[in-house]
Specification:
By secondary structure, this protein is mainly β. The protein has helices at residues 2-8, 97-100; strands at residues 12-20, 26-33, 36-44, 49-55, 66-73, 76-82, 87-93, 102-104. The chain is built from two helices and eight strands; from the N terminus they run H-E-E-E-E-E-E-E-H-E. A four-stranded mixed sheet has the order 4-1-7-8.
Length: 110
């Protein structure tokens, strides 16, 4: 049971963030695939901070790393890459995510 418990943390990706000048109430996380984008999670933005998660099934582990879109609106978003077990942290100005973001915590995240 200890092995299952230790391994379960590697089957999710957590995205946390801090947004300056935020006026939005929610932020959304999408997995980007060749077939399009699939919404995975959305969360409230409280005092400029948010936390999003995605859980990964055993059968899907082979498909990683994967692309993710973090979005305040259709025109205000960023794309990044993440792998199971990572906690990605994003800092940005909410008025223009793509022009102001910095990202840390992921081996392939840019």
């Amino acid at each position: 049971m200890l092995l299952v418990s230790c391994n379960s943390g590697k089957q999710q990706i957590i995205f946390t963030g801090e947004l300056d000048e935020n006026i939005e109430s929610t932020i959304s996380l999408y997995k980007v695939t060749p077939d399009g984008s699939l919404m995975i999670d959305s969360a409230p933005i409280e005092k400029g901070k948010f936390k999003l998660k995605t859980k990964i099934s055993e059968k899907d582990l082979k498909d990683y790393p994967s692309f993710y879109k973090i979005s305040l609106s259709n025109n205000n978003l960023i794309l990044t890459v993440a792998s199971p077990g990572e906690t990605i942290h994003i800092k940005a100005n909410a008025k223009s995510l793509v022009k102001t973001y910095s990202i840390s915590g992921g081996k392939d995240a840019v």
